[in-house]
Amino acid sequence: MIVKMSKHATQEHYDKLVAALKKKDFEIRDVSSETVRIFGIIGDTASLDINDVQAYEGVEQVIRVQTPFKQASRTFKEEDTVITLGNGVEIGGEESVMMAGPCSVESETQLSTIADSLAKQGIRVLRGGAYKPRTSPYTFQGMGLEGLKLLRKVADKHGMAVVTEIPSSDLIKTFEAYVDIIQVGARNMQNFQLLKALGKTHKPILLKRGLSSTIEEWLMSAEYIISSGNPNVILAERGIRTFETYTRNTLDVSAVLAVKELSHLPVIIDPSHAAGRWSMIEKLSAASLAVGADGLIVEVHHDPENALSDGAQSLKLDRFASAMDSLRELAEALRRPLK
Ligand code: PEP
Ligand code: MN
């Protein structure tokens, strides 16, 4: 961290701040010139809040040079993290992974119909919401525990892993019993109590990026999980809120590149919630693979017109199948097979 003192700062201001920092075991490296007083704070500055330093009288500017996240950072761990699921699927490895399924689990018939078709495409990770975070309390809220049981049952029939969203920490034990990847929804990305609690499980966590969260905030949320004891975090970009209204959100494709520079964690893309329109899913998936995403999570439904949630962005079974064919071709050209 670098601190620039203002022109009007006195020696007293400087001494007071330096003494406080030294008390916290930081080293001070003064690089002042005749005209400007600047110094570097050396040490584990992740524990230092930039605003706390800024609060001192005489401080003009504080710049962070190290990332505030530690264990999630590329500096901490250079090699990519690869997460292996119970069924052998690797996330962050040599292949990219397609996760697919309905937005919500609606019934056994619905889930089986979709999963049977996905299995024919070789899909090995089944998605489906059992506890739905809906904007309106009057819309379908999910099947709850019954939905988790159906996901497990149907996935097991095809040797698939299950990824589904957890609404709150009191359900962690239940999720451990039925789920392979626990999803933290965009709206819960900064539910720090939930993140800390998920640090105590060993199940991989799929951490969606918050609707209006910066990449740094997203990685800080990953840091909460890792620093609480669970290193198995997969990041998922799902579109962010911008001024654009044509799409549901704006897919930040560059987030993959940013995460790859800043972190060793795997990162996947959810084009469904980003676009909100089924017609864009295949091309956005192609773009995601092209920038090096470790996988995709896509909503698929056998009857989108009658889906209980997110029908407009769900691919019909045949459209998903043909999208998979062309995405796999692209993946081969990119020398990273799509599984
Ligand atoms: C979902 O995956 O169904 C979902 C609600 O996603 P998000 O949290 O990204 O909105
Ligand atoms: Mn959805």
List the helices and strands and how they pair.
Elements: E1 2-5, H1 11-23, E2 27-30, E3 38-42, H2 50-54, E4 59-63, E5 83-84, E6 90-91, E7 97-101, H3 108-120, E8 125-127, H4 145-158, E9 161-165, H5 172-178, E10 181-184, H6 192-198, E11 205-208, H7 215-227, E12 233-237, H8 254-262, E13 267-269, H9 271-275, H10 281-290, E14 295-299, H11 317-333
Helix pairs in contact: 3-4, 6-7, 10-11
The structure holds phosphoenolpyruvate (PEP) and manganese (II) ion.
The site of phosphoenolpyruvate has 11 residues, from loops.
Question: Key terms for this structure?
Answer:
339 residues; alpha/beta; TIM Barrel; 2 domains; 8-stranded parallel barrel; 4-stranded antiparallel beta sheet; 14 strands; 33% helix; 17% strand; elongated; binds phosphoenolpyruvate; binds manganese (II) ion
Report on the structure:
With 339 residues, the chain is an alpha/beta fold. The chain has two domains: 2-63, Alpha-Beta Plaits; 83-333, Alpha-Beta Barrel (TIM Barrel), CATH 3.20.20. It is built from eleven helices and 14 strands. The strands form three sheets. The protein has an eight-stranded parallel barrel with strand order 7-8-9-10-11-12-13-14, surrounded by six helices. A four-stranded antiparallel β-sheet has the order 2-3-1-4. The chain has a two-stranded antiparallel sheet with strand order 5-6. α3 (108-120) packs parallel to α4, α6 crosses α7 (215-227) and α10 runs parallel beside α11 (317-333). The model has no long low-confidence stretch (mean pLDDT 97). The structure holds phosphoenolpyruvate and manganese (II) ion. Phosphoenolpyruvate (PEP) is lined by residues 103, 129, 133, 165, 185-187, 208, 238, 270, 273.
